[in-house]
């Protein structure tokens, strides 16, 4: 497991967000260092997915500041399309283009956004499909793949953009149980290679294996922001203790 550097890759300062009168994020403050893996967990409706989507500007915020690799996400001067091209995002539902085969799903953004030529983009795509174990499926369409395979394609597509960090929003929650590990294995490998990762997940085995820190959320608040050993061995709040008991007992 690589050791994170002192350099902050993702910084959130007093981030708050409302949906109408509903305060979905409340003064959330944390930072994630380069090479660090942080797992965000908590009960449904606690604000986890909203928090991770603010990092690349998919969810606008009403107050606070967010920085990624020194760029202020929350500044009106920031080109969010450029920022998002450098921050990989993997969603619960795979978000692949159904009308494109797998290789073209990986080539498209490289050519359109990074302006890579076709051969270079194809070479990169093939290398990453091989890395996630799907180089035999380049000509298939998403509907011809299992959920686990589609999610691995989505990870490979994000990696094609040479991201400075990867965001995962419950990447295994839509998968059949036997497909979860094939996706987690790819994520574990990324973590061991030193990719900066912020992962919303209920997969506590993954958190125990590769997380450096765990953020525990409840009602829009970050209740705990601690090293994983402390979170699992001696959580600070009763709410976190109850959450762990309910997750691990199943």
From TrEMBL:
Record flagged with keyword Transferase: no
A GO molecular-function annotation: ATP binding
Domain ABC transporter: 10-244
UniProt keyword Transferase, yes or no: no
Predominant subcellular localization, coarse grouping: membrane
Enzyme class: hydrolase
Gene3D superfamilies for the chain: P-loop containing nucleotide triphosphate hydrolases (3.40.50.300)
Keywords, sorted A to Z: Amino-acid transport, ATP-binding, Cell membrane, Hydrolase, Membrane, Nucleotide-binding, Transport
Membrane topology qualifier: Peripheral membrane protein
A Pfam family that the UniProt record links to this protein: ABC_tran
Compartment(s): Cell membrane
GO cellular component: plasma membrane
EC number(s) from the headed UniProt entry: 3.6.3.-
Family designation: Belongs to the ABC transporter superfamily.
Record-given protein name: Glutamate/aspartate transport system ATP-binding protein
């Amino acid at each position: 497991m690589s050791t994170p550097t002192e350099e902050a890759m993702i910084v959130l300062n007093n981030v708050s967000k409302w949906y109408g009168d509903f305060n979905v994020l409340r003064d959330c403050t944390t930072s994630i260092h380069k090479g660090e893996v942080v797992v965000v967990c908590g009960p449904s409706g606690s604000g986890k997915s909203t928090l991770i989507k603010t990092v690349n500007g998919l969810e606008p915020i009403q107050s606070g500041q967010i920085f990624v690799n020194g760029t202020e996400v929350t500044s009106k001067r920031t080109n969010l399309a450029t920022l998002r091209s450098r921050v990989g995002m993997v969603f619960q539902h795979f978000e692949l283009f159904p009308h494109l085969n797998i290789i073209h799903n990986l080539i498209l953004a490289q050519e359109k956004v990074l302006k890579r030529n076709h051969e270079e983009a194809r070479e990169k795509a093939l290398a990453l499909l091989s890395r996630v174990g799907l180089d035999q499926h380049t000509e298939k369409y998403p509907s011809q793949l299992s959920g686990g395979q589609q999610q691995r394609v989505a990870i490979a597509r994000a990696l094609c953009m040479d991201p400075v960090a990867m965001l995962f929003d419950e990447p295994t929650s839509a998968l059949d149980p036997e497909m979860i590990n094939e996706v987690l294995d790819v994520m574990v490998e990324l973590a061991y290679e030193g990719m900066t990762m912020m992962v919303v997940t209920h997969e506590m085995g993954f958190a125990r294996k590769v997380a450096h820190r765990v953020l525990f959320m409840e009602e829009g608040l970050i209740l705990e922001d601690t090293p994983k050993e402390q979170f699992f061995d001696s959580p600070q709040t009763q709410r976190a203790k109850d959450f762990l008991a309910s997750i691990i007992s199943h």
